[in-house]
Amino acid sequence: MKEAVELRNPTDMYYAQPLEDNLFEWHFTVRGPADTDFENGIYHGRILLPVDYPMKPPSVILLTPNGRFQLNQKICLSISDHHPESWQPSWSIRTALLALIGFMPTHSAGALGSLEYPSEERRRLAKISHEWVCKECGLCMRNALASKPVCDDNADVIEAQHLTTQISIKV
């Protein structure tokens, strides 16, 4: 699976791996984008792959309180199973993670699974996100991702921003 090769080494922005007993359920961790309400936040979630992935899109679910996406709900993006007509088999879990990072600071526009918390609350949630522990995989966000800050010229940051122009939040 190309996903395993593409994601075998964690970056300072994201990490994902399948559960040991289920290759169709991946847990991921993403860093909130710099210069946003989510900066310094560490967010954890699940990606559920359909049996016919990559021909059909995955489900993306956030587990960490964040003020942008509802918890334990499938997120409605054009890269998710809410809109299979938009999905491209060339996209990957990495693409989904970068798109998620890119969409965190955008307005929800009433999309399913979206929230519009005030900036102060999003910043508070980003700060306390480091203490969150996944009940399923046991990962503590304090120990997740590389500890170095993300640079604005990071290629992944640029790609995440670019993906927001190609992939949309669907209402």
Q: How many domains is the backbone divided into? A: 1
Low-confidence stretches: 148-153
Form type: globular
Q: Write the CATH architecture name.
A: Roll
Rg, Cα atoms, Å: 15 Å
CATH-defined topology: Ubiquitin Conjugating Enzyme
| Largest pleated sheet | 4 strands, antiparallel
CATH H-level superfamily: Ubiquitin Conjugating Enzyme
Oligomer: single chain
Helix content: 10-25%
CATH class: Alpha Beta
Percent of residues in beta strands: 15-25%
Strand order of the largest sheet: 1-2-3-4
**Helix vs. strand class:** alpha+beta
Overall pLDDT: 87
State the gist of this model.
This protein has 171 residues and is an alpha+beta fold. The chain is built from four helices and four strands; from the N terminus they run αββββααα. Pfam families: UQ_con.
Question: Would you write up a description of this structure?
Answer:
The chain is α+β, with helices and mostly antiparallel strands. It has one domain (2-166): Ubiquitin Conjugating Enzyme, CATH 3.10.110. Helices cover 22% and strands 16% of the residues. The chain has four helices and four strands, in the order H-E-E-E-E-H-H-H. A four-stranded antiparallel β-sheet has the order 1-2-3-4, with helices on one face. A hairpin with a 2-residue loop joins strand 1 (14-19) and strand 2 (22-31). It is globular, with a radius of gyration of 15 Å. 40% of the residues are buried. The model is unreliable at 148-153 (pLDDT under 50). One of its GO terms (biological process) is protein modification by small protein conjugation. Residues 1-145 form the UBC core domain. Pfam families: UQ_con (PF00179). InterPro entries: Ub_conjugating_enzyme, UBC, UBQ-conjugating_enzyme/RWD. It comes from Wuchereria bancrofti.
